[in-house]
Give the backbone structure.
Amino acid sequence: MKIAICASEVVPFAKTGGLADVTGALPLELESLNQEVIIIMPRYKAIQEPKFDIWRLKPDVSYSVIGKNIKVYFIEDDAYFNRDGLYGDKAGDYKDNLDRFSYYSRRALELLKEINFSADIIHCHDWQSALAPVYLKTLYIDNPFYKNTRTIFTIHNIGYQGLFSQEEFPKLGLDWKFFNMETLEFYGKINLLKGGIVFSDIINTVSPTYAKEIQTKEFGYGLEGILTKRKNDVFGILNGLDYSIWNPETDKYIAKNFSKKDLGGKAKDREDLESICNLPEKKDVPLIGIVSRLAEQKGFDILAQGIDTICRMNLHLVILGTGDLKYHLIMQDMVKKYPKVISLHLKFDDALAHKIYAGSDIFLMPSRYEPCGLGQLIAFRYGTIPLVFKTGGLADTVNKENGFVFDKYNAQELIKTIDKALSAFADKKKWQQLVAKAMELDFSWEGSAKKYIELYAKNNLRLNR
Ligand code: ADP
């Protein structure tokens, strides 16, 4: 199949979040499964030689290559993209984001024709590329070049929708008839994510459970209605994990490498972490790790409510992350109160993250909602047992057989489940079995890419209807 991936960020060229990991890893797997893939993204300021090999195709289009032969085309426009940030700066979102990403989406479609890439599938991601399917079904509807092209739209987090004021609508070049409740309008504003949902042939999100959740009022951020209307076209595919980066056997950041056959190194990594964190070395006390944004989405509201009680339990806690100031302050207070129990690192630190995944016994991720989640998948590979709230990708990957799960979102349930985990930890033999089982789980990209190919093929079936 010929697949064009349109995304506003792609590893290794530009990244602000998990979206870039997916759009960087999925094409590589698709290529190794014999699919013909290209990627189209904006050229931001940081995409420069010599950091990357870049060739010129046209005055406003350059390209690089990843994998064996995947061309990554960069749409250039200095006024729009030659900036440090992708979507904004310290002052907030860039004011011209609608101009920037409508231009990008339309230029991407034009480019397909110019390079004669008659895609079977255009795979778009999040609000930034959501206008490509919109344009395909409106401005380009009668253009024979795109006759056989179908679209799939992936929602990575429905909390981010690309909302713009109605006054900006003329910039889109679309007839006003598309500004209504059934298409691009959302409570008087333009909603680009909604456009992607309405105009794409197939919609998916990054876990099966999140695909169902976003069709409910609780998780849908106002788009549950439009998603429910299209429920037969909404799917969920878990993201994979890049095991070349997250591998305790080869990890360069950790004190000692280890494997499921030889767990000796994990004990050393725990000692190393305790020493970095100034926590007393106590083998019988479980070490709980958190690597996360300090945000309500990640469960910090119930964690903050329960933290005093949790610190009085028989455990040690290491927290790495930044986020909302109020959670910084609450956790800082706890460090003052329980300095021998909790160690706090308010920063982004990749090396320390690796050390926490390797050196902890339990990985705490009580997210209120979680489209997919990577932390729990990484923890598994390092033999660190996840404790999670049953939601989204966490519900699809963690269960009572391989971790600890609570299903009512409140501080009491969180505390109860931590208590359960502490009791389980006390049974050394059973714990070792749990660790061994966790390390065997496989969430590689290969499995996910095969599912995407099935979805693309489904998309082709629609064509024959
Ligand atoms: P989200 O993308 O919603 O923040 P995920 O669980 O999908 O959550 O991915 C988070 C990724 O970012 C994980 O790889 C995690 O290890 C990493 N991460 C989060 N916070 C930090 C931090 N402070 N330092 C280092 N890595 C972090």
User: Anything to note?
Assistant: The radius of gyration is 23 Å.
